[in-house]
Amino acid sequence: MLAELERTGKSWYDVRMDAQTPATPVPDRGPAPDFQDITLYDIETGEAFTFSAKEQEFYWRQGFTNVPKYTPERRKLKRLERTKGKELYNVRCAVCGKVGRILTEPTHPKKTLCETCFMKQWNAFLEKHPDIKAEHEAAEKAAAEATALYQQQTAGLS
Ligand SMILES: [Zn+2]
Predict the structure, then answer these.
(1) 134 C-alpha to center of ligand 1: Å?
(2) How far is the CA of 157 from the centre of ligand 1 (A)?
(3) Ligand 1 center to residue 158 CA distance, Å?
(4) Domain residues of the chain, as ranges?
(5) N or C, fewer C-beta in 10 Å, the chain?
(6) What is the model's pTM?
(7) How far is ligand 1, taken at its centre, from the CA of residue 62, in Å?
(8) Which of 45, 7, 22 is nearest to 142 (CA)?
(9) Contact call for residues 42 and 69 (beta carbons, < 8 A)
(10) How far is the CA of 23 from the centre of ligand 1 (A)?
(11) Worst-scoring range by mean pLDDT, 9-13, 22-26, 36-40, 115-119?
């Protein structure tokens, strides 16, 4: 898919839209609103993280209605935790066509991506936006440092 992106000059979002069946057209959201970087706080740790304008655009194009509640690093951890011992739903990935499994019943089955394709597209998105990638890396580093400090401070407490 990355090769196709290079060849056609399309964004992954366009490619995903092409993968839709004609029976379920997904509305083109058009030009993005003028998002501004905002600072959010992890709802459990209070740690600040940036929800960048470009990231907000990504969320908006995905149709996500909620802002992230946790730092990027903790979001990743929580997703791993959630998948343990939960019932999974079979869905057909809109990009690769493989049947994958997700945690919640899909509200838009034709728009659903498998984990692999989602991460590929997210990573491709990050590669095209080095500033966001750097923010994520910085956020992950900060989260790792905060976690280490927290563990150091709480070591021996019970
Ligand atoms: Zn896929």
Answers:
(1) 26
(2) 45
(3) 44
(4) 2-21+34-128
(5) C
(6) 0.41
(7) 15
(8) 45
(9) yes
(10) 20
(11) 22-26
